[in-house]
Structure formats: C-alpha cells, structure tokens
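G.,

No rush on this.
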Amino acid sequence: MGSAYLLRSGVVSAVYFYSLGDDFGDFSNFASYPIKLDGRVWPTSEHYFQAQKFKDKKLRECVRKAKSPGEAARLGRSRKNPLRRDWDSARLNVMRKAVRAKFQQHQELAALLLSTGDAKLVEHTENDDFWGDGGDGSGKNWLGRILMEIRGELAEAG
C-alpha cells in the first residue's frame, strides 16, 4: 500500500506510510537521513536503533557500518548475539531518541512532519504489530505514535 490519506470533512485525519517510495516514506527509519548521536554519525535512524540492542561496542559499531538499513536491521534482529538485558524496557526511548534526532537535524523532514497537521500517523504494515499497525489496525503503531509526539514538540518549538 502506498501513502493513503483518510479524509473526514475534507481534512486529512490519518496518514499511512511504510515504503520509502510513499509520499511520506521519509518517515521510515530506512530513509537515508544521517543522524549524529552519541558522538557518531549513523547512516539512518534504523542503524542507530538496531545497534543499541547490543551492549558490546564492537557489535554496535558493526551495525553502524552496515551498508544499508536492511543489513543493519538483519544484524539487529539476529539472535546470534545476546540483546542487552534491558532492551524491552529501553526500546521505546531508544526509538524516540533516534526519531527526534532525525527530525531535529533535517529541517525538510521537520517541515514534512509538521505538514501533517493533526492527522494520525500510521506505519501501515502486516510485518510489525508493535512499531506498525499490523496491517489491519490491531497493532500498537509505536512508530506513528512517536512521530506524532515529535511533531508536537516541533510545533511547540515553533
């Protein structure tokens, strides 16, 4: 599914995104927007997020140097190496930190995010019911929720 908009009374009430080719595909963590965090430059927010799953600095650096966000995701999802013990409780704040950096460090992205107004932002995918909507709206949509939170911060900062 490409970008879709849910209209109510002529106003966009929801924006669905997932693929990089979508109108709002830049909201994806796979979008090629480098971020500076923790004294390093990360090729994408996906690289940063996946690397933070590991306590071992060499593993984090290996993920940071991955040639693509897809490769970074594969490395981060591999269970050949143990996840840090607090990952389940830390992952939302790690994602929030990465997404905040992405939109604060790239003004064109901040403008795109702000252009969505008060619309609900939904990562629409069957592949993920935690970060996305599970494809049928039953998922938690945490990426969309974090994007809406960052949008509010950017709007307040003016």
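When you get to it, here's the other one too:
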Amino acid sequence: MVKSKFKFHPAIIIKYLAAITLILTTINIIIQFAIYSFGLKEEWFLLFNMDKEVNIPTLYNCSLFLICVALISLIIRKLKEQNDNLTNKWNTLKWLFIFLTLDEALQIHEIFIIPSIKPFLPAILNAVWVIPYGIFVIISIMYFMGLLFSLPKKVQYLTFISGFIYLAGALGLEIIGSFLVRTSAIKLHGISYGLISTLEEAFEMTGLIVFIYALLIFAFAYQNQKLKINLHLSSKESANY
C-alpha cells in the first residue's frame, strides 16, 4: 500500500483561478468587438458572452461562490471544535453565499426590476434591483462587522479588499451602465455597454477570487487545517507477475 500526501499553497490555486478569469474576460472582450464593430453573430458567442446568462462565465461564477461555501464550511467545522461564539455568523455567511450562488444561476435579483416604477426614479437608479440589494448590503456589513474585526489583520485586509472589488462591479458598474443607458449617453446594445458589462463581471470574479484567497489563508495558515489526499495502491501478495 502506498500513501501520498497532497500539499498546496493558496497562491497556486489563486493563480489558476486568476488565469481562468483573464481568459474568459479576454474572450468576452473579443466577442464584444466582433459583435458591435464587425457585425458578427456566431452562436458560440453566447457561451462566453458575459452580458448573457446561463453560459460558461455564469457557471464559473457559480463555481467561485461554491468554493467560498466549501471553505466557509471547513472553517465552521474547526470553530465548532473550539466552541467559538462567532460560529453562527460564519454559518449565516455560508447561507448568504448559497443564496448568491442561486441568484447568480437564476438571476433572482431581476424580480425587483419593475418597469412601471422606473419613470419615478432618478436615472442613477434605473437598475431598480440595486435599491433592495443596496439596503441588504448595508445591513450585512453592519451584521458581519464583528466577524470581520475578529479575523487576523492580513485576512481582514483581504476580505475588505474583496468586498470592495465585488461591490464595485456588482453594484457600482451596474449603476453606471444603467445610468448611461437611461440618459442616452450609450446604447444598451453597443460596444460601450458591452465593455462595461465585461468589466462588471471581471470585478465580481476578481472579488470572489480575493475572498477565496483570504479564506484559504485563514483556514490553512491560521486554523492549521489539513488537506490530505491519500492514494491507496495495493495488490494481493498471492498475485503472480
């Protein structure tokens, strides 16, 4: 029997995730120019177009959320052993990411897009769903503030940076893009809006990757979690070769 231990460094995983993000972003930029500058409309564009849903970028985004869920679950397991009183907040965070995974896959936030109330809102709030989600973000920040300050300084810093990058894309660029369309500064189906959407998705992916890095550091450097993959190779002694 042969046993093999698999060792890794968080930075290695992040490099692979960053590379995938860069590739998807580059492909999408090429697609945007192909569509709006050269009039090409190949069917396979839909598979990589970040401005569309239920495709490879969506699947990748969902995968990033699920990695966060898995790492948070790993952290919770360790905290339960230590009877840590912050376990409940970590558990709430896990369910929040499960919801965000479903929202990414099913576009739940679009339920809040009610065309009839758009004329009564300022142009900056043209994407109506940013109102309830913005309020939810503020409440979440207040709720998880204690958890954030309980983290080691490096993890705390990375978590803050990840949240800033993600929200800058998910809410910030969404607001900017919708505002420019509402004021007729750009077209909804045009290269400018397409590139803004690309940047929005790239920011979301980058924010998630930075948070994954923070969770990896916290779980394996500060919690001393162990990741072992044992390969069992065995043969019967009676076998003849």
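The chain has one domain: 10-222. Residues 1-6, 229-241 have pLDDT under 50 and may be disordered.

Enjoy the weekend,
O.
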